[in-house]
Design brief:
The chain is mainly α. About 75% of the residues lie in helices and about 0% in strands. It has five helices and no strands. Helix 1 runs antiparallel to helix 2, helix 1 runs parallel beside helix 3 and helix 1 packs antiparallel against helix 4.
């Protein structure tokens, strides 16, 4: 059950729950320790990706915003360029895809861990496995 909550803490309690579960169970259960560490690193990566994505868009928006003055019509009105509108739609679509994809994958990993399976996240799973269980044979 603790492994399940470690993964579901992406939208239940952030990185605090996996840290608590890891700290309280690292000597008791390797299974819970493995899933708590995996969930912790997944949450950290998720937060980093969101921050990088938002800052990248802010930089693009500022650079694009500087060019908005070039889109002044003959009547003197400034209109938002179509490229900027398309960029906003693309930004939010990608942001929601990242958010809902991470939530969906956390739910999937939580269900698999609740079933007692030792599933791994693609990049960090093997590193966490080696840390908790020792190097693979």
């Amino acid at each position: 059950m603790l492994a399940l909550f470690s993964h579901l803490s992406l939208f239940l309690g952030g990185i605090v729950l996996p840290i608590i579960f890891w700290a309280t169970n690292r000597d008791k259960s390797k299974f819970v320790t493995f899933h708590a560490l995996q969930a912790l690193w997944f949450h950290i990566a998720y937060i980093a990706i969101i921050i990088i994505w938002v800052f990248a868009f802010i930089i693009i928006a500022v650079i694009g915003g500087l060019g908005v003055g070039a889109f002044t019509s003959t009547t003197g009105r400034q209109e938002m360029p179509v490229f900027f509108i398309i960029a906003m739609i693309g930004f939010y679509a990608t942001l929601f895809a990242i958010i809902f994809g991470a939530i969906g994958y956390s739910i999937y990993m939580g269900i698999k861990s609740y079933q007692g399976r030792l599933v791994k996240y693609p990049v960090i799973g093997n590193k966490v496995y080696a840390k908790v269980y020792g190097p693979a044979n």
